Amino acid sequence: MQRSILTDLMGLDEDVEIMRAHRTAVQNRRGATRAHMALLRFTDKQYILRNAAAKVKDHPFEEANLFIPDDFSRKVREDRKNLKENHLEAIHARAHVEFVFIPWSVPTCILFKKKDTDKLKSFSLMASA
């Protein structure tokens, strides 16, 4: 199944090596089980993200939606969650803030733009500590 996802659905020509693949007990909303696949090389994942990920976004493949997650540490994911839950709305609620978002960057921060400037300002847990 993994090989057909890579070749048939994504249209990849290069030989991407799969280190291991297995199904998990976790099910999606429709009851289909999830599968995890680990690639042998990081460069293979980069190749997939550059050349094929857009082809599978929200595309059902044998009753499953495909998702290619970013490789972020637990600490980075926790920092993002903390910023989102505890700081994002408060910064957005400031009268002079035009928009606010959490970019996919490390270290984790919130970027926001004031109405009277074109420059982005940042807020991070490190700066607030």
Describe this structure in words.
- It is a single chain.
- The protein has two domains: 2-65, no CATH class; 74-128, no CATH class.
- It contains five helices and seven strands, in the order αββααββαβββα.
- It has helices spanning 2-9, 42-51, 53-56, 74-92, 125-128, and strands at 18-27, 33-39, 60-61, 64-65, 97-101, 110-114, 120-123.
- A three-stranded antiparallel beta sheet has the order 5-6-7. Strands 1-2 form a two-stranded antiparallel ribbon.
- The radius of gyration is 19 Å and the shape is elongated.
- The model has no long low-confidence stretch (mean pLDDT 76).
Which helices and strands, and how do they pair?
Elements: H1 2-9, E1 18-27, E2 33-39, H2 42-51, H3 53-56, E3 60-61, E4 64-65, H4 74-92, E5 97-101, E6 110-114, E7 120-123, H5 125-128
Antiparallel strand pairs: 1-2, 3-4, 5-6, 6-7
As a percent range, the share of strand residues is 25-35%
- Runs in which pLDDT lies below 50 for 5 or more consecutive residues are none
For the largest beta-sheet, the strand count, sense and barrel status come to: 3 strands, antiparallel
Mean pLDDT: 76
Query: By helix and strand content, what is the structural category?
Result: alpha+beta
Shape: elongated
Number of domains: 2
